[in-house]
Structure formats: C-alpha cells, structure tokens
Amino acid sequence: MAPPSAVSPQRTASSDKPSAAVPHEPGISESKAKVQMPRFPGKTVSRARFSRISQFDRSFDVQGPPAFTDKHAERDYLKGRLAAAFRIFGKYGFDEGVAGHITMRDPVQPDTFWVNPFGVAFSLIKKSDLIQVDHEGNIVGGGPVRLLNAAAFMIHGAVHKARPDVLCAAHSHSIYGRSFCSLGRKLDMITQDSCSFHNDHVLYESFNGIVLAEKEGNDIAACLGDKKAALLQNHGLLTVGGTIEAAVFWFLSLEKCCQAQLAADAAAGGRGHTTIKIDDDDAAFTYKTIGTPRAGWFSAKPLFDVIEKESGADYLQ
Predict the structure, then answer these.
(1) Complete DSSP assignment for 85-107
(2) How confident is the model at residue 276 (pLDDT cuts 50, 70, 90)?
(3) In whole angstroms, what is the distance from residue 204 CA to residue 186 CA?
(4) DSSP string over the chain
(5) Higher model confidence: residue 5 or residue 141?
(6) pLDDT the model gives residue 232
(7) Angle CA(138)–CA(140)–CA(141) in degrees, nearest 5?
C-alpha cells in the first residue's frame, strides 16, 4: 500500500513537517529538501593546475573550466574540446549527411569562429581539421579542407555577433528534435530534465528552406534573444553556451526532452488523456539547480570523459 503522502497530500503550515511537495522523499521537509539540493562546482582553476590533475580526480578537484592567461593556449585547448564535441555528436547520430555544425568563438580573434569543414564526418573530425571563419564568411585559417557550409555561417555568424556571451553554438538535424520542431510548439514542462529549459528556450516560427540568406540568420539570432535554445520550426534544434560543454549538453538534453514529450504525448493521447505538467514555481526552482550555465558545463563532463576514453583522444591531432 502506498504511503499516505503519496496519495493524499498533507496540507500544513509548518515547513518542518512532511510536505507533498517532496513525496518521493518520505519524511523530509520541503525546506530541508531545498537546502540539500546539489550544487555544481563553481570555481575556475589555472591551466597549469588543470594539467596536473588526473582524469579520475578532476570531478572532485576541478571547480570549473580551466582559466588561461595565454590566449593562444586557450585557443588550442578549446579547439580540442570542439573536436571532441563533434565526436560526441557523431556517436549519438546527430549527423545527417553534411548537415549540422558546432562553432566556437576564437579567444585570440573574437570576431572569428572555428567550425567543422563542410563534408568531413563528425566522427572523424580532428582538431587540425577545424577551419577559422570571420564574420564576413571568409575562411582565414585552419585545416586542409577549406569548405564552409553556408548555412553554418549564416546562422552561427549571426548568433556570435548578437551574443558576445556565447562561446559555442550547436545545430544539427537530430531525429527527435526535427520531429518535435514540426509541431510548431515549445516544450511542456513534463519532466525534471525539461525544467532546464523553463523560460529559457524559444520557438522560431518560420521555415524558408536552407538558411542561405543573411536576413534569416539575423532573424534566428533575434528570436533566440538571451535564451540558450531555439526550436527551429520544420528544421531542428539550436543551443548555445558560454562553454563548449554547456552548448553540447543542452543539445543532447533538449533532444531527449523532445523524444520524451513525443512519447508521452502519444501515450497520453492514445488513452484520451493529457500529460501532467509541472507548475511554474516548481519548474523555476528546478531550473535554478539544473538549468544554469555551470550545471550545463558540469553535466557534460561524463560525455567528454567517455569520448576521450573510447577514441584514445585521437581528435586532439
């Protein structure tokens, strides 16, 4: 038999008594539950110290992304992380022919960004393959394949111009993302994970074919505003972050949220029901724990650790 608090909410003025707001933790008070919510690491460390810490110990000792005094060293490190990001996208099947791109603002020349060369498979990309592009669409440096996806420049160039806080932007035609984007709606707050995007994603309600015009790139950037994710109608997902890791994690998480909502809506609809929505206060509270830039960065750590192990870090070549 289910405990009483799971089937009949107990209304009480005292926050020290069991509350229906936390039914999965019998006996714990709402105030205590909030105190015990996890906190993600929040302090940066120097590159020198970062390099001395073993991979196993980093989750305990490292309090944030490495900090750099040498911008060229920072560029080299970030290019390695960007190459790893493409390997992660390849592993999860986010490639669709030659579509899809992830960009990183260059720390040495902030009015340029690094991107994958057009036609090179995500799963094969190395640091030395990446190409550097300015805000006029000119390839100014990088690997041997000097081909640029025009849509990558139009979308990402506009986002990087409009959002100086964005280091990285990610877009691909992932299966659940593009399926959900055909519905012309934003995410419902139906799971804990979807709360990461509570009041932090937008719907771009237009599709005019492949983004080859500067105006549409600017329109997408304007629609994105200060949010971290956009659902591009009839197109796919776009996520951004102040770190490469955050942008990548938000993309994977948003893709799974789309998958979860497609499944939940279908299951509920088949029974003549609708999904149960998380109320705004609870969604906002949850967002403060799992939807922050620091949470996005730290949540990506397992993804990058696994891809490093599986690939032998050959993407650093």
Answers:
(1) HHHHHHHTT--BTTB-EEEEE-S
(2) very high
(3) 10
(4) ---HHHHS----S-TTSB-TTSTTSTT-BHHHHHHTS-------EEHHHHHHS-TTTHHHH--SSEE-S-HHHHHHHHHHHHHHHHHHHHHTT--BTTB-EEEEE-SSSTTEEEEPPTT--GGG--GGG-EEEETTS-EEEESS-----HHHHHHHHHHHHH-TT-SEEEEE--HHHHHHGGG--PPP--STGGGGGTT-EEEE----SS--SHHHHHHHHHHHTT-SEEEETTTEEEEEESSHHHHHHHHHHHHHHHHHHHHHHHHHHHTT--PPPPPHHHHHHHHHHHSSHHHHHHHTHHHHHHHHHHHTTGGG-
(5) 141
(6) 96
(7) 140
Distance between CA atoms of 298 and 281, rounded to whole angstroms? 24
Surface-to-core class of residue 307, CB atoms within 10 Å of its CB (0-12 exposed, 13-18 middle, 19+ buried): buried
Q: What are the residues whose beta carbons fall under 8 Å from the beta carbon of 37, sequence distance 6 or more?
A: 289
Nearest to 56 by CA among 315, 312, 301: 301
Q: For residue 203, which of 224, 221, 176 has the smallest C-alpha distance? A: 224
Question: Comparing C-alpha atoms, which of 137, 98, 138, 94 is closest to residue 117?
Answer: 98
- Does residue 268 carry a pLDDT above 80? yes
Contact present, 239 and 88 (Cβ < 8 Å): no
List the structure tokens of 5. Answer: 């608090």
**Residue range 123-171, pLDDT digits in tens:** 999 999 999 999 889 999 999 999 998 888 889 999 999 999 999 999 9
- Is there a contact between 158 and 214 (Cβ–Cβ < 8 Å)? yes
End-to-end CA distance of the chain: 59
Residue 218: closest CA among 135, 161, 170: 161
Tokens 């929040």, located at residue: 42
